[in-house]
Write a structure and sequence with these properties.
three-stranded antiparallel sheet; Tetrahydropterin Synthase, Chain A; 4 domains; alpha+beta
């Protein structure tokens, strides 16, 4: 390869390097500025292909999409002198590229820190004029709308940032107050449980006493009815026996004597001392009892 060819290759490489150093591309999701020796010469460059002076000018690109800052939970004092731990997040994007670059040097971490500080100051001011009930449920939507509006104006003026939304993820009590609240709630629940148990025992005793009373009444009524039925049955039986025996008194006396004999001589060791002419032997001597 001759010297002319080598020179041609070197010149071609220099041209390629010069062209590549002169052209830069800005995507649709980006915002860019152009610096010359660290000084901004062009801001808010539109998406597309752009040219710059090689080795003299330098582009800086920033994410133009909607970004999220997850703020650190902070303690805020309400109008009722109650501390609350608030966990919030901020949705933001670049509004003015030049102001954003001057305020943050194009560092998103720096922007997040500034937004978090600004948001905490705004929340502290809003919580200071509201009660716990208002910030938790009563005026929460209005609070978020007011905070977003105020922060958007401040962030645009100071940092070139548009605050799209501010939302509270959670509102909690500090650990010491939360433990006291939990203990108070536990004591209250224990008191209610004791009251319910005592009421249940009272109702149980009343139900048990009523059941015992009903049991006694039912048994008494049943015993009365049984005695009445038994008396009526005995009366009917006695009447039946009387009618039957009146038809043949001699036969009745005979069967009574047989029953007496059976009962008297059923045991092996039974001894009877009777006179021979006793009525007990009446039917042993004569079948007709004479």
């Amino acid at each position: 390869m001759g010297p002319r060819a080598i020179i041609s290759i070197i010149v071609s490489l220099l041209v390629v390097i010069l062209i590549s150093s002169s052209v830069f591309v800005v995507n649709e999701t980006e915002r860019a500025i152009l610096l010359r020796f660290g000084e901004v010469v062009k801001s808010d460059i539109a998406p597309g292909i752009h040219f710059k002076t090689p080795f003299v000018e330098k582009e800086r690109k920033f994410d133009a999409r909607l970004l999220t800052v997850d703020a650190r939970p902070e303690r805020f004092l309400t109008a009722g002198k109650k501390y609350l731990v608030v966990d919030a997040f901020i949705k933001w994007r670049i509004h003015d590229v030049l102001a954003f670059y001057k305020a943050t040097n194009g560092d998103n971490m720096r922007a997040a820190s500034l937004l978090s500080r600004l948001t905490n100051d705004g929340l502290r001011a809003e919580f200071a004029v509201r009660t716990v009930q208002e910030v938790v449920s009563g005026e929460r939507d209005k609070l978020m709308a007011d905070i977003t509006k105020i922060l958007n104006v401040q962030a645009q003026n100071q940092f070139g940032i548009e605050v799209v939304d501010v939302r509270i993820k959670g509102i909690d009590l500090p650990d010491d107050l939360r433990n006291n609240v939990y203990r108070r709630m536990s004591a209250e629940r224990e008191r209610e449980a004791r009251e319910l148990r005592s009421q249940g025992k009272e109702l149980a005793e009343g139900i048990r006493a009523d059941a015992d009373r009903q049991k006694t009444v039912i048994e008494a009524n049943a015993y009365r009815d049984a005695e009445v039925i038994r008396g009526e049955g005995d009366a009917i039986a006695a009447s039946t026996y009387a009618k039957a025996f009146n038809k043949d008194p001699e036969f009745y006396a005979f069967t009574r004597s047989l029953k007496a004999y059976e009962d008297s001589f059923s045991g092996k060791g039974d001894i009877l001392l009777l006179k021979p002419d006793s009525d007990f032997f009446r039917y042993l001597k004569n079948s007709k009892g004479r």
